[in-house]
Each structure stands twice: as structure tokens, then as C-alpha cells.
Amino acid sequence: xxxxxxxxxxxxMTYEQARDExxxxxxxxxxxxxxxxxxMALWERGEVLAQKCxxxxxxxxxxxxxxxxxxxx
Length: 73
Hints:
This protein is mainly alpha-helical. It has two helices and no strands. The radius of gyration is 16 Å and the shape is elongated. It starts with 14 loop residues before the first helix and ends with a helix.
């Protein structure tokens, strides 16, 4: 039996999509209206979303650094 990864969709998300989804996850967790199992799943999704956002930001930082370096040369 193979378990489907509930966070597999995150890989294809844009930065804005991941950021917006992360905001929704945080709002649900802060509301406290979910079960413990749901909270754990939301927490795991939030971690994956935050990592995706960081990847996007790191890529943007690298591109900006490259442009700035080229301008100095």
C-alpha cells in the first residue's frame, strides 16, 4: 500500500501561491479549531511551504547578487 504525499503539490507552486497557502495554514493553526491530527498535518504542510518560500527567496537573492556583481565589473 502506497501513501500519497499530501504536500506533493507544493513543489509546483509559485512563491506567491506557497506564501498565500502558508498564511492560510497559520490562520487555521492559530484559530485552534482543528483536531490534534489535523494540527500535525497542517504543521507539516506549513514546514514544507516555508521551505518552498525560502527556496524561492534564495534563488531571487542569488539572481540579484549576480546582477549586482555584473554591474560592479
